[in-house]
Amino acid sequence: xxxxxxxxxxxxxxxxxxxxxxxxxxxxxxxxxxxxxxxxxxxxxxxxxxxxxxxxxxxxxxxxxxxxxxxxxxxxxxxxxxxxxxxxxxxxxxxxxxxxxxxxxxxxxxxxxxxxxxxxxxxxxxxxxxxxxxxxxxxxxxxxxxxxxxxxxxxxxxxxxxxxxxxxxxxxxxxxxxxxxx
Length: 182
Hints:
Its main location: membrane. The chain crosses the membrane at residues 26-51. Keywords: Hydrolase, Membrane, Protease, Transmembrane, Transmembrane helix. It is a single chain. By secondary structure, the protein is of the alpha+beta class. It has 2 domains: 1-46; 71-173, Umud Fragment, subunit A, CATH 2.10.109.10. It has helices at residues 2-46, 158-161; strands spanning 48-52, 67-71, 82-87, 90-99, 103-107, 110-113, 116-117, 138-139, 144-148, 164-165, 169-177. It has 2 helices and 11 strands; from the N terminus they run αβββββββββαββ. 27% of the residues lie in helices and 30% in strands.
């Protein structure tokens, strides 16, 4: 009888330890999940960003409703980079075609950077000026870039609102996530 009581006491102690261990493990798991969520929030608040395309200015490279992952910390833009920026309360994307010190002109021959006609195999329409847009030729100022959309006939870009200040650019596109038409 005495042995049976001792065995029962041992079983109860094991149950208490297991119950305590389960609660401890559950709390530890929840803390890990909370930490991961906080780290992801900080990363996507200060290092990376995600934007949804709401127009066809960059078609066919970036289509309407695609998600674009962009990197916020690199502000050294070069010709060819796709940048994400906010203009007129809209998130927009365009390709950098000229940087500080470059002279941009749009003539009947097309886009000219520093006197050389620019030919790109990914641009399917002519680059033309807009009637009430920017006056050409222009020189890109220090701390600015000149951007154009790939879909030149309908794109809202620097031909309308002039050069972009680098500080107004949210970041450089690093990945496109296609959300429809797959």
